Amino acid sequence: MFVAVSRFVIANGMEEAVRAAFVHRPHGVDSAPGFQRMEVLRPMGEPAEFWLMTWWDDEATFDAWHHSHAFKDAHKGMPPGLRLKPGENHITRFERVAE
């Protein structure tokens, strides 16, 4: 199993609009080959910081999704005008070792 963790920080006060976009997301990724599940988290006391965790069969299926048109389409639900804090956004890749 492979887990991708994306961390990003909102730069322009649109935290609640981003939160709502995730709560009401269209679930497009749910039918992607290899996709298992997704969770979106925010650290307590840091409302502008989001952690998006996705579980996949393997790294190849994540990479296929991440480079697809469907990936770009899935992000169309983010609020217009959204800006992310430069240098605070990254994806970390994990191998699941044990349950």
Q: Could you name the CATH class?
A: Alpha Beta
SS-based class: alpha+beta
Number of domains: 1
Instruction: Give the amount of beta strand, in percent.
Output: 25-35%
- Give average pLDDT, whole number: 93
The value of Rg in angstroms is 14 Å
Topology overview:
Elements (H helix, E strand, L loop, with lengths): L1 E8 L5 H9 L11 E7 L7 E8 L2 H8 L2 H6 L15 E6 L4
Antiparallel strand pairs: 1-3, 1-4, 2-3
Describe this entry's structure for a reader.
This protein has 99 residues and is an alpha+beta fold. It has a single domain (2-95), classed as Alpha-Beta Plaits. It contains three helices and four strands, in the order βαββααβ. It has helices at 15-23, 59-66, 69-74; strands spanning 2-9, 35-41, 49-56, 90-95. The protein has a four-stranded antiparallel sheet with strand order 2-3-1-4. Strand 2 (35-41) and strand 3 form a beta hairpin. The protein is globular. The termini are close together. 7% of the residues are buried. The model has no long low-confidence stretch (mean pLDDT 93).
